[in-house]
Amino acid sequence: MADWGLSNRLARMMSPHSGNTVMLAVDHGYFMGPTRRLENARATIAPLLPHADALALTRGILRSSVPSGSTVPIVLRVSGGATILKEDLSDEAITVSMRDAVRLNASAVAMSIFVGAPHEHDSLVNLSKLVNDGEEVGVPVMAITAVGKELEKRDQRYLALACRVAVEHGAHLVKTYYCDGFEKVVEACPVPIVVAGGPKLDSDRAVLELAHAAIKQGAHGIDMGRNVWQSDHPVAMLKGLRAVVHDKATAAEALDLLNGEKARAPTLAPA
Ligand code: 5RP
After folding, report:
1. Are 110 and 75 in contact (CB under 8 A)?
2. Per DSSP, which regions of 10-133 are E strands?
3. What angle do CA 164, 224, 183 make, to 5 degrees?
4. What are the structural domains, with CATH classification, of the chain?
5. How many whole angstroms separate alpha carbon 144 and alpha carbon 126?
6. By Cβ atoms counted within 10 A, which residue in 102, 123, 137, 240 is the most buried?
7. Is 92 in the pocket of ligand 1 (CB under 6 A)?
8. 106-147 tens-digit pLDDT
9. How far is the C-alpha of 253 from the C-alpha of 230, rounded, in Å?
């Protein structure tokens, strides 16, 4: 059984009402550089912060772009060392000490694992070591089942394997992708799963449907980035997603809410 501090940090990220979480992922720059609409991270994050249950990001963006008075729990990315300019994105190491994570008051630390990739071994050993360090100070570890540039890897057999491997190495929380047969991924993963959104989808409805299907099949929330802040109405999108994740709204109900919010909010300039 996890120690009180670790359990408390995990609980702070989950809504007591639904038991789920709406995390906002803004960590993309650590390997993608200034991603579209995240060029000015501070400006992107500020209006979204009040609507997020947790914020997933690197220490550089946390220190430079988030007010220290913020009470939103932080999921601190602690892996890195590769960029999209190289073919192999799996060549990552742990780049942040647990001491710095604690100094930054992180509610969890997060790292990518690259199952089946050239640096699979390193990423799994790094995960185990991170769990050892986290357990010592009561900081939970979220494993991210990264696929690098091979987005086609995101099927049920691969994701079930990758999530289970993450849990077996000690992860307290897993971030993965939604896929057909997602309930089988959940069934084989005895810790909470949150789902990423991936590259921007064609419509608002598609984003809400993805979130709805994931929650219905057992996800404990979402950790989305591009489908929120690359939207022309990011706050409205986040409110729609909250309705799905926390209030059992259908995708159609959430879309009505989102469209109502859109009508009230100014549209972002095209980027
Ligand atoms: C980058 C990440 C992202 O945080 C994750 O992919 C979620 O963002 P998006 O919804 O844009 O995919 O882990 O490595």
Report:
1. yes
2. 21-25, 54-57, 74-77, 79-80, 93-94, 108-113
3. 40
4. 4-264 (3.20.20.70)
5. 13
6. 240
7. no
8. 999 999 999 999 999 999 999 999 999 999 999 999 999 998
9. 22
Cα 24 to averaged position of ligand 1 atoms, centre (Å): 9
How many residues are there in the chain? Answer: 271
Bridge pairing between strands 108-113 and 221-224: unpaired
Instruction: Report the predicted TM-score, pTM, of the whole model to 2 decimal places.
Output: 0.96
pLDDT per residue as tens digits for the range 153-198: 789 999 999 999 999 999 999 999 999 999 999 999 999 999 999 9
Q: Is 197 in the pocket of ligand 1 (CB under 6 A)?
A: yes
Using DSSP's 3-state secondary structure scheme, residue 174 falls into: strand
- What the block records as the tokens of 96 is 């942040």
93: which strand partners? Answer: 80
What's the chain's Rg over C-alpha atoms?
17
The pairing of beta strand 193-196 with beta strand 54-57: unpaired
Q: What angle do CA 85, 230, 213 make, to 5 degrees?
A: 100
Give the integer Cα–Cα distance in Å for 241 and 201: 14
Beta strands at 108-113 and 93-94: parallel, antiparallel or unpaired: unpaired
- Ligand 1, residues 22, 26, 28: which to mutate, most atoms within 8 A of Cβ? 28
Question: Residue 144: CB within 6 Å of ligand 1?
Answer: yes
The beta strands (E) that lie in the chain are given as 21-25, 54-57, 74-77, 79-80, 93-94, 108-113, 141-145, 173-177, 193-196, 221-224
177 Cα–ligand 1 center, Å: 9
Active-site positions?
175
